Amino acid sequence: MSETVGVIGLGAMGGPMAANLVRAGFEVAGYDVDPGRAQQPGVHACTSVSELCGRAAVVVSIVRTLPQTEEVVAEVETAARPRSVLVVMSTISPSAMSAIAERLRGRQVEVLDAPVSGGVAGAEAGTLAIMAGGSPAVLDRVRPFLDVFGPNLFHVGERPGDAQAVKLANQMMLAVNMLGVHEALRLAASYGMPPERVLPVVAKGTGASWVGENWETVRGWWEGHPSGGALDIIYKDLRTILGDAAERQLSYPVAALAFNLLREVW
């Protein structure tokens, strides 16, 4: 392989993504704030982002939050070689993504905006859906790596931030749909109809949805509500949506209701 890829953030998502790159035959360098996570077979464990940037001209960042992403960007800004590429696969606001790209442009570092959908199961199986925002030339350069992460790669726009807009739209639809399915099942239960009788029928009708078809998985997101789990990620993304809306003087009343109701219901 012509280029080494570096993966920053080797947790529940980044860990299996790095492992899939190794299995696909790529040279992989890894860094995580928890050094133990970087100790993966076939992954060269780096002790800092700077070391990783010295080894890899393509750097994938898959940390959880915007502050963590900004910490990565600050180190990449000082350590990355010219013509390096930073692929941001975390979910952050489109405006923050645009600002990151502008900031790194001065260091001659290209940025691809590439959030994912499919969760931990998709990361492990290599079946993630990837939304990409950035120049076609940059996407072509990193496509061999992204194809390992999942078969559904969508180039949604040429500006970093375009893909974040699509990902946040996905998260808004997911959150609203979760509440709709939950409430509909309450309605059915009030008439003595359990989910196992309702959901197979709905799956063949106009109420069909990913949430309904994967209800046992979705229900597991809030049973016990493990810290840092999927529900926390949905809260984070809804908070991003609503915060960005306030800055842009926009109103998303259904998303705001979903944010408040999710906390009340679960």
Question: What descriptors fit this protein?
Answer:
single chain, 266 residues, alpha/beta, 6-stranded parallel sheet, 12 helices, globular
Structure, explained:
This protein is α/β, with parallel strands linked by helices and 266 residues long. The strands form 2 sheets. A 6-stranded parallel sheet has the order 3-2-1-4-5-6, sandwiched between helices. Strands 7-8-9 form a 3-stranded mixed sheet, sandwiched between helices. The longest helix is centred in the middle third of the chain and has 29 residues. It is globular, with a radius of gyration of 20 Å. The N and C termini lie far apart (47 Å).
Total DSSP helices: 12
SSE run = EHEEHEHEHEEHEHEHHHHHH
* CA-atom Rg in angstroms: 20 Å
Q: Which word captures the global form?
A: globular
Head-to-tail CA distance between termini: 47 Å
List the SSEs and their pairings:
Layout: E1 5-8, H1 14-23, E2 28-31, E3 43-45, H2 49-55, E4 58-61, H3 66-79, E5 85-88, H4 94-105, E6 110-113, E7 116-117, H5 119-125, E8 129-133, H6 136-149, E9 152-157, H7 162-190, H8 195-202, H9 210-213, H10 215-222, H11 230-247, H12 253-265
Helix pairs in contact: 1-5, 2-3, 3-4, 7-11, 7-12, 11-12
Short description:
By secondary structure, the chain is α/β, with parallel strands linked by helices. It has helices at 14-23, 49-55, 66-79, 94-105, 119-125, 136-149, 162-190, 195-202, 210-213, 215-222, 230-247, 253-265; strands at residues 5-8, 28-31, 43-45, 58-61, 85-88, 110-113, 116-117, 129-133, 152-157. A 6-stranded parallel beta sheet has the order 3-2-1-4-5-6, sandwiched between helices. A 3-stranded mixed beta sheet has the order 7-8-9, sandwiched between helices.
